[in-house]
């Protein structure tokens, strides 16, 4: 069965510093990959997605992610974080176009921003 | 578009009572998903529909849970009878064809 691993439960970053959140997946074929962000008490907002093509994808709020097939990874990056980026981040994998199948989510990474 | 709409946003009920959660997907979307989020298990898919037809309900925990989609603009998730271990945040999401899913704000259910 497919699985998604986010190895970091919590990450603390100083405001203005760069960020990288890790995500690894387990699946035999190329999956469809997503990053969602959840602010406290809110639903999930899509940050970016990878379906095919260029392995470096740009998202909203200045985030980007890179798909590395050899490492089965889809890490999320941001060059300079803002206090408003503090939230829970979820990596997710879909296997039938992403929207035509249930997503498998990682456990999430809680991002804390230090002033 | 108003996005995916869920109601109620919060529900507190006593063990044994029936609970009904509601979802209105984004207009034009043909897939609808129900997820449950808990601290212990994270986000889990419960069931999803395509063109109002249930496709995969293997994530539904037990027979106390049921979901319906009587038309393209409305779905319900029902728990009868409810138990304290059902306490969680329940999310509805919708998508158009194979594209990305959009999530509602969730319903926080507390069963005492």
Question: Could you outline the blueprint of secondary structure elements for this entry?
Answer:
The complex is a heterodimer of chains A (115) and B (112).
Chain A: E1 3-5, E2 10-14, E3 19-21, E4 24-26, E5 32-38, E6 44-50, E7 56-58, E8 64-68, E9 73-78, E10 87-94, E11 104-105, E12 109-114
Parallel strand pairs in A: 2-12
Antiparallel strand pairs in A: 1-4, 3-9, 5-6, 5-10, 7-8, 8-9, 10-11, 10-12
Chain B: E1 5-7, E2 10-13, E3 19-24, E4 31-38, E5 42-50, E6 53-56, E7 65-71, E8 74-79, E9 88-95, E10 102-103, E11 107-111
Question: What does this protein look like?
Answer:
The complex is a heterodimer of chains A (115) and B (112). With 115 residues, chain A is mainly beta. Helix content of chain A is 0%, strand content 50%. Chain A is built from no helices and 12 strands. Chain A starts with a strand and ends with a strand. The radius of gyration of chain B is 13 Å and the shape is globular. In chain B, strands 2, 4, 5, 6, 9, 10 and 11 form a 7-stranded mixed sheet that branches. A 4-stranded antiparallel sheet of chain B has the order 1-3-8-7, with no helix packed on it. In chain B, strand 5 and strand 6 form a beta hairpin. Chain B has strands at residues 5-7, 10-13, 19-24, 31-38, 42-50, 53-56, 65-71, 74-79, 88-95, 102-103, 107-111. Chain B is mostly beta strands. Chains A and B meet through strand 6 and strand 11 of A and strand 5, strand 9 and strand 10 of B.
């Amino acid at each position: 069965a497919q699985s998604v691993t986010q190895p970091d439960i919590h990450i603390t970053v100083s405001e203005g510093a760069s960020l990288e959140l890790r995500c690894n997946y387990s699946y035999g074929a190329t999956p469809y990959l997503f990053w969602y962000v959840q602010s406290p008490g809110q639903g999930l907002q899509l940050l970016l997605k990878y379906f095919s093509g260029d392995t470096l994808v740009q998202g909203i709020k200045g985030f980007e992610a890179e798909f590395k097939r050899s490492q089965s990874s889809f890490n999320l990056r941001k060059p300079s974080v803002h206090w408003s980026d503090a939230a829970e981040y979820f990596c997710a994998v879909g296997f039938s176009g992403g929207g035509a199948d249930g997503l498998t989510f990682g456990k999430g990474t809680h991002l804390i921003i230090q002033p | 578009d108003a996005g995916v709409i869920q109601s109620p946003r919060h529900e507190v009920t006593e063990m044994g009572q029936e609970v009904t959660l509601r979802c209105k997907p984004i207009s034009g979307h043909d897939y609808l998903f129900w997820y449950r989020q808990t601290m212990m298990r994270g986000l889990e898919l419960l069931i999803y529909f395509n063109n109002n037809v249930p496709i995969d309900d293997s994530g539904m925990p037990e027979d106390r849970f049921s979901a319906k989609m009587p038309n393209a603009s409305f779905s319900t998730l029902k728990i009868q009878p409810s138990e304290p271990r059902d306490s969680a945040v329940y999310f509805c999401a919708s998508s158009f064809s194979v594209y990305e899913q959009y999530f509602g704000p969730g319903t926080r259910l507390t069963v005492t």
